[in-house]
Amino acid sequence: MVFYFMKSQDVLLLFKLVCLHKREQEHFNNAPRAWPLDWQDWEEESGFIGAYSESPIYTARALEEVTGISKSQVNLSIRRCLDVGLIRFDRNLGTPRVNRRALFEFVVYGLKYVFPAKPAEITRGIATAFAAPVLNEVLISGGELVPVWPYAQGHTKGQAVEPIYKSVVFAVRKDPELYAMLALVDAIRIGMPREVSLAKDILKQHLEVG
Q: Which of 55-59, 158-162, 163-167, 201-205 comes out lowest in average pLDDT?
């Protein structure tokens, strides 16, 4: 697979598509949600409208509204992911489906080299990686400073980590499951070996990769 054609917004879009598909599966199978809906590390801005829906919509306009990626970039992203085998279209529904195994392999083996990140200045933001709710209850970190996505209404003070794409803070505030998965991605991208190992195991289970 030719991953060097990928852009960082492709990663955000792929994980959002995974969340939408899992929501479909939960709805039709009456399955419980994997993670709580109240996982957040921020105060909501006045007038901000969430978009957590029981009926996922896959148009470019709808995906723009829930990811913050423009419609034109959504279409280009889907085309790139089709070219490298990270997306296929459902034959019956015509909706884009993620090749979860390929996505998992890219995150584990390639992401930190293609889209590197390092904790930087101290700021207020949204906890990510080992500090996010998906990991902080099962992993105790020895460090005092935690990684955060910079955001003025965030609850946590820590070292700034550039999100995988500029609209991540917007997108995760509309979908707690997306927040959990992108925090796991960051743990793999910037974490120490123990954090990386645990994040890989949780992400692999949630993506249902055998």
A: 55-59
Amino acid type, 132: A
174 contacts 39 by C-beta, under 8 angstroms: no
- 94: region left, alpha or beta (phi > 0 left; psi from -120 to 50 alpha): left
Closest residue by Cα to residue 182 from 66, 11, 4: 11
The residue extents of the domains of the chain are 1-210
| Residues 117-163: tens digit of each pLDDT | 988 999 999 999 999 999 987 776 656 789 999 999 999 999 999 99
Alpha-carbon gap, residue 142 to 127, rounded angstroms:
16
Q: Classify burial at 10, counting beta carbons within 10 Å of its beta carbon; exposed 0-12, middle 13-18, buried 19 or more.
A: buried
Q: What is the pLDDT of residue 56?
A: 79
Average of pLDDT values for 174-203? 94
Q: What is the DSSP string of 80-116?
A: HHHHTTSEEE-TTT--EEE-HHHHHHHHHHTHHHHS-
What is the chain's length? 210
How sure is the predictor about 51, in pLDDT bands with cuts at 50, 70 and 90?
A: low
CA distance 72 to 64: 9
Instruction: State the distance between the two ends of the chain, measured CA to CA, in whole angstroms.
Output: 20
Distance of alpha carbon 84 from alpha carbon 90, whole angstroms: 17
Is residue 202 predicted with pLDDT exceeding 90? Answer: yes
